[in-house]
């Protein structure tokens, strides 16, 4: 699998007007084909980082690169960026504005000046990807919260980005809604979309992501999700706890049920298999 860097910040810094620096000297990249979980306490800079990557904010120092090319913050440059990188904010009501689901999802492709046939194809594909085809004509104000979440994501997917950045996409969803959304994201990843998810849920990050990025006062640390989320020092600095799967893996190793180099469980099903007697393990 290719692991080229699709979008990256190099030596980037940012501060809001009359405020202290939020990010300083940041080097951060999103690798193709790797699901990335972005974690950190409130105020750590996650939202700022996502908005910098998607062009909603401009770094005060350093550069944003799309591939190997610095992004230009004129109309042409931002259009190029936003056809490759899409951000979906946490609250869908901040993003939805059209009268119906289909109209809202079509807004981005229409703004690209695409032919009607292409717009319809993109809308149909995005609705299918998020499992909301039946809602195409539904007024957005009649949607449930979970349906509004998936509609907002579908609007970004219709742009066919290479990188989809999601701010707390499972927040406010019940367990069934979370599973439906994660299934949809798995389908997008299988179709070649690289997904970045900001979340406070370390258990979700361990289960879902390939890599993790932890934002702490000392900067950002990135690495394989199971290795990074086993670092007590980084988790404390990020205001997070140890994932249950990592804790379970440590317990299994202590009882000789898991080899030292083996990865611990990510799901309850994996835990049950690891804890079963040898003759009953798959």
The residue-averaged pLDDT reads 91
Secondary structure class reads alpha/beta
Question: Share of helix among residues?
Answer: 25-40%
Give the uncertain stretches in residue-range form: none
Largest sheet descriptor: 6 strands, mixed
Order of helices and strands: EEEHEEHEHHHEHEHEEHHHH
Word description of this protein:
The protein is of the alpha/beta class and 282 residues long. The chain has a domain at 243-282. The chain has eleven helices and ten strands. It has helices at residues 46-53, 75-82, 101-111, 116-129, 145-157, 175-190, 202-208, 225-228, 232-237, 244-254, 268-275, and strands at 5-15, 21-31, 36-40, 61-66, 69-70, 85-88, 163-167, 194-198, 211-216, 219-224. The strands form two sheets. Strands 6-7-8-3-9-10 form a six-stranded mixed β-sheet, with helices on both faces. A four-stranded antiparallel β-sheet has the order 2-1-4-5, with helices on one face. A hairpin with a 5-residue loop joins β1 (5-15) and β2. α3 packs across α4. It is globular.
Q: What descriptive keywords fit this protein?
A:
single chain, 4-stranded antiparallel β-sheet, 11 helices, about 40% helix, 10 strands, about 280 residues, globular, alpha/beta, 6-stranded mixed β-sheet
How would you concisely characterize the structure shown here?
With 282 residues, the protein is of the alpha/beta class. The chain contains 11 helices and 10 strands.
